[in-house]
Structure formats: structure tokens, C-alpha cells
Design brief:
4 helices; 0% strand; 95 residues; mainly alpha
Length: 95
């Protein structure tokens, strides 16, 4: 069973519970994946969320990212930032 305590962080209290559930699903399915494996999976999942009418504001996304970085090693944070950068780049390519 995964540690879901991060979902109770006070900085996330304004985020819709359904969005947090979607994030839990994404976090669970991304375990053990390299950044190269993770990027297509995350892009597919975010596409599914958009089709369902769910999206995260920039403020929500930033809050979630900051909470997820807490307690991580510098290497894990670096991997997270690499994936985030790739996702932002891919998002810009679609416009």
C-alpha cells in the first residue's frame, strides 16, 4: 500500500478531492518508471483527465509538485524536474 499522507498537506486543501484521486492513480501507476517511460504515461493520463473535463490550474500543479518533492533525495527531485520539463516542452509543442 502506498503512502498517501501527502494528499492531506495543508497546501493542497483547495484542490478538488477528485483531482487528488486522479493524482493518486497517476502516482501509483508511475512507480518504478524511468523518466523516458514516465513521460508517455503521464501525457496519456493527463489527456484522459482533460477529456473527462478535469484539469489543474498552474497554482494547483505547482502546489502538488512542491508537496511531492518534500522528503525526496536530490536525485529523485532531479528526476521529477526532468519529467516536468519534458512535459512542459511537449505541451508547448501542441500549440
Amino acid at each position: 500500500m502506498s503512502d498517501t499522507s501527502w494528499t492531506r498537506d495543508p497546501s493542497l486543501k483547495g484542490i478538488d478531492p477528485q483531482k487528488l484521486e486522479a493524482l493518486l492513480s497517476i502516482a501509483e501507476s508511475s512507480k518504478g518508471k524511468s523518466p523516458k517511460e514516465l513521460l508517455p504515461a503521464l501525457l496519456a493520463m493527463t489527456g484522459n483527465l482533460k477529456r473527462q473535463g478535469t484539469s489543474f490550474s498552474q497554482e494547483e500543479a505547482d502546489a502538488v509538485i512542491q508537496v511531492l518533492k518534500q522528503g525526496k533525495s536530490p536525485e529523485e527531485v532531479q528526476r521529477m524536474e526532468k519529467v516536468i520539463s519534458m512535459m512542459k516542452f511537449m505541451g508547448r509543442q501542441k500549440h
